[in-house]
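Students often ask why we bother predicting the structure of a whole assembly rather than each chain alone. The short answer is interfaces. A chain on its own may look different once its partners are present, and contacts between molecules only exist in the joint model. In this exercise we take two input lines together and write out one structure for the complete complex. Read the inputs first and try to guess which parts will touch.
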Amino acid sequence: MIFIPVGLIFIPILSGVIIYLFKHRYVNYLSIVAQLLVTILVIVYYVTFKESYSDTYIVFGLWDERIGISLYNDALSLSFVMLSVFIWWMVLLYTLQTKEEDYNFLFFLLFLEGVFLGLLQSNDLFNMFVFLELTTLLVTILIAFTKTGESFRAALYYLLLNTSGVLAFLLGIILIYNSFGTINVQIVGSMMSSVYDGQILIKFAFVLMLAGISVKTALFPVFTWLPRAHGVAHSAISALLSGLIVKGGIYMFLRITTMYEGASFAYHDFFFVIGGLTALIGVVFALSQKDIKQVLAYHTVSQVGIIMMGISNINQEIAYGGLLHVFNHAFFKSLLFLGAGIIVAQYGTKKIHDLRGVFKTMPFVSVFMIVGMLSITGAPFFNGFISKSVIKYGIEGNIRYWILYAVNIGTATSFLKLSQIFFGQKKQVGEKQIIVHYVPLMTLSFVCIIFGLMYIPISDGFFGIDLTYVKILKLSSFVDYGVTLLIGYMIYVFVVKKDYIFIKRLRMFNLSFDKANYLFIIYIVVMTLYFIS
Amino acid sequence: MNPLLTFLVVLIGLYGLSTSKNIIKSVFCVTITEAGVILLFLNLGNLEGGSIPIFAEGLVNIVDPLPQALMITTIVIGSTVTALALMLCIKIFHHYGSVEWDVVLRDGGEE
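Now the answer. The structure tokens for the assembled complex follow.
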């Protein structure tokens, strides 16, 4: 059993290297074989984990556990691992072609899978840093893969901003090592309860690490890299980035805050405010955009804000809603990006007002896109509804509730705008897509509906959390959704469609790199003042 | 060297990042920040007059080997980041004819 976590990291990387070395179209199918092997290993590992809860903590090379490299798995990391493997299946099937030039792309894709699975399982802070930085490098290469000027500048912006974020994380690790003498997450977590209030260095380490993670997660002041990068990358890569890589930051947030549990810092309110701002700003920017991929990218920002509002809650049940939204968002956002990718490829344009008559031209893709849109706006019977209800649960009538409500209305407005692409006359479009492209779309829509209907057994099986209090067949949830759609439609007709001058200004808004770094430094300073005072 | 002095290097790097308008300068400001962080960690593990951390007889006051082991990895990663960033700079220069952020990021999202 001990080799499985290591295998999860090295099987994709080694098969990627082999594919790159042989450069042959038949060797490219090794990616599918490796993916199958990883899937089997994950399932075997999960089953044994469920039975005995053993072999979850591995220290390599017979070193003392305080200084050795170690891997650690629990229900949280294993659920993220399974989600990653699933999303990688979708992306691999979507990009499956039999051209020889694919070996380059597959090499980086599989390398990224190994590195990301390593990030999810690693138990010492320095390995987390190494994997974070490797993820940044590989994602940069994948963004630049379309080889246009826009993709190069987006890639460089992403690389430099994220590197400065990761350096802040490294600075935090140094302070942790200086204070505790170890960087093992488990041991630091167990020593954290003996930290008394006055130890400023440990608090400063918390600030620096979370500031670094905020850049990776694209929280409010430092989200500007995300729409840029996700808007220009290949659609499969956008799906991967929005669905999964951004969630790597959320996972790190959960890990670090769990490590600091013993010290009982009051970080919840701060990150709720940051999450709320992220959600609102993301939605406002999404409303102003005219490019289908930019709209989806800004919705990733706002949905990450909603996730942050959920998981920063001090109440564990509501925090679970945020965790559930991580999974649901991964499913419906990948679905939307992949569907948009097919539509954009066939129409040859990304502008929403040039995309018309999609429903008559591509009925299958349209049905899948509609499933994704219903999920993201939180319609009953779809998965977005469940997690949003859990987050909303218990805060009705509160100011927090109205922030969420405003974000929901904005999301509805924006997807009503996006749904205009379905209406109109049939158009003659490019060549037919191969059928294998529809498989990921079909699977993802199916999963969206399954998570919307079978949420009680799923959350009970994975996390042991009882969700029976969330009822779908309640009149109020339907009325709620209807009212949201209605207000959203009014805003669409009377504000967004008119395209006022301030919406144009918002669309032209573009933050220079030095200003983004300036905001990052201000963010660190604000966090320092908030936590150390 | 005083740890505060190395922290000053980090601050210089951050200042450069938040003010420079040139892509090449930004790349090197990231490198400077990284160098500052590495120096800070090495300083914390250093011991004045300590001996090298190897298995040998009669060594006393051995310096902490862990920061050195970790920082050699950081240096390798840092050089990779610099190499990739400079490669992207070349590509950007070919496409836009400039390495100024203002010129490159102009007409950012939409026309």
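Check your guess against this: The longest helix of chain B spans residues 65-96.
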